[in-house]
Amino acid sequence: MSGHSLPGAPSDDPDGGDACATNAGTGGHRSEPATGGSNQQPVFDQGSGGTHLPERERKADGAGGSSAGEPRGSGGGGSSQSSSGGPPGGKRARILDAAVRVFAEKGFYGAKVAEIAREAGVADGTIYLYFKSKDDLLISLFEDRMERINHALRGELGSLSSAEAKLRRFIEMHLGLCEEHRPLVEVLTVELRQSAKFMREYKNPRFAEFLKIIAGIVEEGQRSGELRGGIAPALCARAIFGALDELSLARALGRSEHIPADSVADLLIGGIRNPHPSRRHA
């Protein structure tokens, strides 16, 4: 899942130039609009991150931006920044937000860079100041959202004392995305798989971090005796994610009704719960 394949480059004018987009076949999926959601669910598909502006863009906009070495979406503080770490209404943020909507509606192959630019309110060539290609835009979108998801998970799970409570809350948050951010979930579960570069070449460090969060909870539960030993935490993490990913995919494509998180948690945690909790595992 990765990569850069789309031809085309920005013109000398930051807001000029024609977009070159892959538009071979599509059968894009139309997503239902996001349903709003509860206050408990973090917002992952609005005001996306990215504090680094290309030099030409900073000069053109008069934006201070952040240093080139600052990670995207790192939220380097300051009241003038959005909650995602980027300048409020920054072009990179608007492009990423627009990409969620267009990819979800048109599908990765059906979406054109020009359509994303129009949705974001920028000129076609501006896209290439921030992203090398449509694949690069998709991967950047994935990294931005996964960074936020991982941050939200750590913040939410850190206050819980038991491994089972953490796993339950993790499952609730994961499935909550299906209800609160349907376009984003469709992009993350369906459209990412349409990028051959993403599937074959991308190292996926954000996803590896995501799996480590799950594996860490399982390992903690094994040490405390809550969860049974003899199963590699990394294997448990893959199995739990695989089940949730399949449920999320079915929900995103409208093939299933509301998914009860409690029932899913009972099923997944029940399979690894220690029947003899007094026995601890090294």
Summary of the model, kept short:
This protein is mainly alpha-helical.
Key descriptive features of the protein:
single chain, 282 residues, mainly alpha, Tetracycline Repressor, domain 2, 51% helix, 0% strand, disordered N terminus
Give a verbal description of the structure.
The chain is an all-alpha fold and 282 residues long. It has one domain (55-270): Tetracycline Repressor, domain 2 (Orthogonal Bundle), CATH 1.10.357.10. It is built from eleven helices and no strands. The protein has helices at residues 55-61, 91-106, 113-120, 124-130, 134-157, 163-180, 182-189, 196-200, 205-224, 233-252, 261-270. The chain is elongated, with a radius of gyration of 20 Å. It starts with 54 loop residues before the first helix and ends in a 12-residue tail after the last helix. Residues 1-88 have low confidence and may be disordered.
Q: Output the CATH class name.
A: Mainly Alpha
Whole-number mean pLDDT: 73
How many separate helices? 11
CATH architecture: Orthogonal Bundle
What is the succession of H and E elements?
A: HHHHHHHHHHH
- Helix- and strand-based class? mainly alpha
CATH topology (fold) name: Tetracycline Repressor, domain 2
Determine the fraction of residues in helical runs and give it as a percent range: 40-55%
Strand content: under 5%
The N- to C-terminal Cα distance equals: 36 Å
Number of beta strands: 0
What is the assigned CATH homologous superfamily?
Tetracycline Repressor, domain 2
Computed Rg: 20 Å
Note poorly predicted spans.
1-88
Count of folded domains: 1
Assembly type: single chain
